[in-house]
Design a protein that fits this description.
The complex is a heterodimer of chains A (80) and B (250). Chain A has 80 residues and is mostly beta strands. Chain A has strands at residues 2-5, 19-24, 31-32, 37-43, 46-51, 56-60, 67-68, 73-79. Chain A has no helices and 8 strands. Chain B has 250 residues and is an alpha+beta fold. Chain B contains 6 helices and 10 strands, in the order E-H-E-E-H-E-E-E-H-E-E-E-E-H-H-H. The chains are: A mainly beta (80), B alpha+beta (250). Strand 5 of chain A pairs parallel with strand 9 of chain B.
Chain lengths: 80, 250
């Protein structure tokens, strides 16, 4: 099982406390390949792709438009 | 050329925004594949409205798009963040595309890597600029660039994975050189009104380089956009600046 995690220090949370999950490109429960772009964050005017670290079944923890901070786990991929 | 210097490409022709977005995407793909390390593109286009992908989900985005296009404003949808803004011949678009190392506050670092050269370029033109959000301005953000307290440029980013698993960032800036600011703001407000959004902006929160130079008694002169592009290219610090057309070294 591998976490889909917002990089811990991607942005200065003291200036911009939160971002959102702008998009999920796969539905919860679907099979994804290693390296596939599975989600997109938006932090103010920046978008940031999140890739699957391994192949397997995607589980969504934070839905589209859900709030994220640096280090938030937005989902996981259970190995195939 | 030092390995970390940017290759700066200045598009001498004024081409449709869709064509320039395609060119921008091609350069981004080259960075993602590892064929380029850091490349910048400066360009201008005729009138266009650049919407954010989230604008495309507005209640009547299609109707708004159709109405603007009938009036000569093609609507393009981008994947960087923010809100809609208008561009045209009197604006300059700058995109800096680079592989970024993993480092703290990478988002801010990439913004600052483009904002600083833009501020230097404006200083070379005779204007002192500040970086910070301007309330009431179109597509506001922490890395707005203002002169005299009014916004002249906005920045946004799109981060994508490279083939090697690193991250590549395209940091984009849209700078108002000598366009009619009220006209640009009006078309954005019209877009949002038609699309069913409450977003509205104030022309008084924005300005152009030409307006600020005139206020300073300097006058923009002819070819202000060309001079601006030259100063930006210089400020981006490339050892090699391949250009064609009016920016070719005299």
């Amino acid at each position: 099982m591998a976490e889909l995690r917002v990089p811990d220090d991607l942005w200065d949370a003291s200036k911009t406390p939160e971002g959102i999950v702008a998009n999920w490109f796969y539905r919860d429960g679907t099979t994804v390949t290693a390296g596939a772009t599975v989600a997109e964050l938006m932090v103010e005017k920046s978008t940031f792709e999140i890739a699957a670290p391994n192949a397997g079944t995607l589980h969504v923890a934070v839905p589209k438009d859900g709030v994220v901070r640096p280090g938030t786990v937005i989902g996981r991929v259970d190995a195939a | 050329m030092p390995p970390d210097a940017a290759r700066v490409v200045v598009a001498s022709e004024i081409a449709p925004a869709a064509e320039m977005f395609a060119r921008q995407e091609a350069l981004t793909e080259a960075v993602i594949r590892g064929e380029e390390r850091h490349v910048c593109l400066l360009w201008r286009s005729p009138d266009a409205l650049i919407a954010c992908f989230r604008d495309a989900a507005l209640t009547d985005f299609s109707g708004a798009r159709a109405a603007l296009e009938r009036d000569g404003w093609p609507v393009l949808v981008r994947r960087s963040g923010g809100e809609a803004f208008a561009i045209g011949r009197g604006t300059v678009q700058v995109v800096s595309i680079a592989c970024e190392p993993r480092r703290p506050h990478a988002i801010e670092a990439a913004y600052e890597a483009l904002a600083r050269p833009l501020v230097r370029a404006l200083r070379a033109l005779g204007l002192e600029a500040q970086v910070g959000e301007v309330p009431g301005a179109v597509c506001g953000g922490r890395y707005d660039i203002a002169v005299g307290g009014r916004k002249v440029a906005g920045l946004a980013q799109r981060w994508r994975r490279t083939a090697k698993g690193d991250m590549c960032v395209a940091t984009v800036a849209s700078l108002i050189v000598d366009a009619d600011v009220a006209r640009l703001v009006a078309v954005v407000n019209r877009f949002y009104a038609l699309a069913g959004s409450p977003n509205r902006y104030r022309a008084g929160a924005m300005t152009s380089l030409a307006e600020q130079l005139s206020a300073a008694g300097q006058g923009g002169g002819t070819d202000l956009a060309v001079r601006t592009m030259r100063e930006i290219a210089s400020a981006l610090g490339a050892n090699e600046t391949p250009v064609t057309g009016p920016l070719a070294a005299a």
